[in-house]
């Protein structure tokens, strides 16, 4: 049972990440590979905030949101000048820069040694020490993000995002300042992925930069490609499939190294096959 | 919003008839004009020191051969292109260029020669896009389309798109795509409408349907600019004609005068 709860917590965290990324890529058509960087910043805000500054978990969530929002606002101004492949390349550059900072700013992040002893959330005198309680909290935040996604999707703001992902100039001619829309969705997406980072740090209780490399950003991209672009349900299903896959391989009984290699190959094959045969993903409403 | 009903209410037009509007005896002030406008592509002048005006509340036919600069002029006047030189005056406000994001403010709407739609978006959403809230913060709050429902239903009816309302634009036939573009400009309560070859490749019934829509706008006193190669449609719909040739003004005036102009006949009509 504990094993399933552990899996469900990871599924919830990755669902949050997928929802936040799908807002950016699925709705806005902005292919960003920087999500792992914001996920990492959120995680480090919680880790440093709780272990060094003595903040509570929820305070560090807000701290992570603010730091991510500020960074995303500044970077978003630069990214808003780019489209398509260039946007992806510049965002990948951001991911590499953040990873290098996490790796080398040892006085703050402890570099490759990482940060240990990250605490659990507490509300008043109640602490979410048990995995079941922690899962409940993750579920609340995941549902909140799901509702927020659906709200944005239904709003006029979402309609403008979906228009500019296909034809920015035409969308501008309808009276919309599209650069502002691109900046806002980038900031929102970055801020929300920070929440997932906070939960990850608190749950694992130890983080190091290796969890937030560019390949993690590609993994998140794979989740939404498989599940479906521009779909909240697709984000959830994609997370479920890709989080379950290593567990399935484990049950087959393959040696660890073989399973790890096979897993990467399956992720790659999934990405390739989806792009060729179902570019909008399993539940998606948009093809790139 | 209060004008919407008036804009969209007009009587059915019989096939081949004119819009049943008394032709003007004189032309009013220009609602939009350009002075010494120049636009080049790779060193070739698409618009060459052009000075011309669009009279208010008129239906203006913008004609000329391929590459004469018609679409380039409309693209400049709708902010899709930025000219290298010249001045644009919109409602007495002079400027060097128009920003596409300002079109709603200037109450300008347009269609595109190549049928520019948001392909992976429903017909309904394509129609709603130009009218929903364009303030960023308010657009996040706006999740209901009830304010636009009446207008949407009327436009869907006029463009025969009711059965296709939930389909994506990419699923529509060529004719329906043209109607969707026309519907999109109808949704906007604009003062100036640019139609870039709205009849090209359409079946006669759909041509009549689009003519009816344009006549409805004429009756409301809107300023309309139509780029079209079909002279019978130009004669039927337009009060005023502007002829471009190699980016320069060749002739302008009443249709009967311009179409008799020898230079126009030689250079464009091939007579």
Strand order of the largest sheet of chain A: 1-2
CATH architectural type of chain B: 3-Layer(aba) Sandwich
User: What's the assembly state of these chains?
Assistant: heterodimer
Q: What shape does the CA trace of chain B take?
A: globular
Report the structural category of chain A.
mainly alpha
Biggest interface reads:
A-B, 28 and 30 residues
Tell me the total number of β-strands of chain B.
10
The counted number of beta strands of chain A is 2
How would you write the strand order of the largest sheet of chain B? 6-7-8-3-9-10
pLDDT < 50 stretches of chain B: 1-15
Strand content of chain A: under 5%
Major sheet characteristics of chain A: 2 strands, antiparallel
SS strand fraction of chain B: 15-25%
Query: Averaging pLDDT over every residue of chain B, what do you get?
Result: 87
CATH topology of chain B: Rossmann fold
From N to C, what is the helix and strand string of chain B?
A: HEEEHEEHEHHHHEHEHEEHH
Description:
The complex is a heterodimer of chains A (288) and B (271). The N and C termini of chain A lie far apart (40 Å). Chain A contains twelve helices and two strands. In chain A, β1 and β2 form a beta hairpin. In chain A, α1 runs parallel beside α6 (131-154), α1 (2-27) crosses α11 and α2 (35-51) crosses α9. The longest helix of chain A is centred in the middle third of the chain and has 27 residues, at 178-204. In chain A, 74% of the residues lie in helices and 1% in strands. The mean pLDDT of chain A is 92. Chain B is 32% helix and 23% strand. Chain B contains eleven helices and ten strands. Chain B has helices at 4-8, 70-77, 103-106, 123-128, 136-141, 149-158, 174-187, 204-219, 231-237, 255-258, 262-269; strands at 30-41, 44-55, 59-63, 85-90, 93-95, 108-110, 192-196, 223-227, 240-245, 248-253. The longest helix of chain B is centred in the C-terminal third of the chain and has 16 residues, at 204-219. At the A-B interface, α6, α7, α8 and α9 of A face α3 and α5 of B.
């Amino acid at each position: 049972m504990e094993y399933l709860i552990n899996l469900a917590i990871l599924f919830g965290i990755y669902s949050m990440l997928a929802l936040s990324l799908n807002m950016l890529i699925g709705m806005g058509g902005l292919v960003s590979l920087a999500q792992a960087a914001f996920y990492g910043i959120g995680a480090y805000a919680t880790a440093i905030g709780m272990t060094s500054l003595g903040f509570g978990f929820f305070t560090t969530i807000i701290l992570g949101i603010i730091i991510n929002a500020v960074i995303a606002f500044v970077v978003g101004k630069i990214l808003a000048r780019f489209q398509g492949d260039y946007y992806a390349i510049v965002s990948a550059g951001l991911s590499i820069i953040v990873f290098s900072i996490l790796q080398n700013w040892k006085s703050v992040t402890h570099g490759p040694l990482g940060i240990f002893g990250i605490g659990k959330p507490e509300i008043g005198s109640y602490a979410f020490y048990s995995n079941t309680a922690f899962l409940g909290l993750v579920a609340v935040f995941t549902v909140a993000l799901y509702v927020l996604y659906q709200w944005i999707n239904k709003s006029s703001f979402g309609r403008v995002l979906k228009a500019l992902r296909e034809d920015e100039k035409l969308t501008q001619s309808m009276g919309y300042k599209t650069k502002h829309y691109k900046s806002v969705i980038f900031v929102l997406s970055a801020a929300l992925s920070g929440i997932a980072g906070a939960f990850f740090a608190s749950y694992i209780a130890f983080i190091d930069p290796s969890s937030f490399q560019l390949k993690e950003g590609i993994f998140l991209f794979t989740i939404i490609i498989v599940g479906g672009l521009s779909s909240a349900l697709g984000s959830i299903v994609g997370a479920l499939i890709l989080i379950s896959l290593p567990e399935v391989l484990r049950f087959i009984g393959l040696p660890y190294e073989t399973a790890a290699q096979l897993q990467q190959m399956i992720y790659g094959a999934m990405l390739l096959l989806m792009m060729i045969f179902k570019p909008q993903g399993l539940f998606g409403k948009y093809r790139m | 919003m209060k004008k919407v009903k008036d804009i969209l209410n007009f009587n059915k037009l019989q096939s081949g008839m004119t819009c049943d509007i008394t032709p003007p005896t004189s032309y009013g002030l220009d609602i939009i004009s350009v002075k010494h406008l120049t636009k080049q592509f790779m060193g070739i002048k698409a618009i060459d020191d052009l000075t011309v005006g669009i009279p208010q509340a008129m239906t203006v036919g913008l004609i000329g051969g391929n590459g004469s600069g018609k679409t380039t002029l409309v693209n400049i006047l709708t902010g899709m292109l930025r000219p290298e030189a010249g001045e644009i005056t919109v409602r007495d406000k002079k400027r060097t260029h128009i920003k596409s994001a300002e079109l709603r403010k200037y109450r300008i709407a347009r269609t595109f020669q190549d049928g520019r739609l948001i392909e992976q978006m429903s017909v309904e959403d394509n129609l709603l896009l130009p009218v929903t809230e364009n303030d960023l913060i308010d657009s996040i709050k706006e999740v209901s389309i009830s304010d636009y429902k009446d207008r949407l239903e009327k436009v869907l009816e006029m463009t025969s798109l009711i059965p296709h309302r939930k389909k994506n634009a990419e699923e529509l036939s060529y004719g329906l795509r043209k109607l969707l573009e026309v519907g999109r400009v109808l949704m906007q309560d604009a003062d100036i409408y640019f139609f870039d070859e709205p009849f090209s490749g359409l079946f006669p019934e759909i041509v009549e349907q689009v003519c009816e829509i344009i006549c409805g706008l004429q009756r409301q006193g809107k300023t309309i600019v139509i780029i079209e190669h079909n002279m019978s449609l130009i004669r039927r719909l337009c009060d005023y004609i502007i002829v471009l040739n190699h980016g320069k003004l060749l002739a302008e005036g009443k249709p009967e005068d311009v179409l008799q102009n020898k230079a126009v006949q030689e250079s464009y009509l091939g007579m």
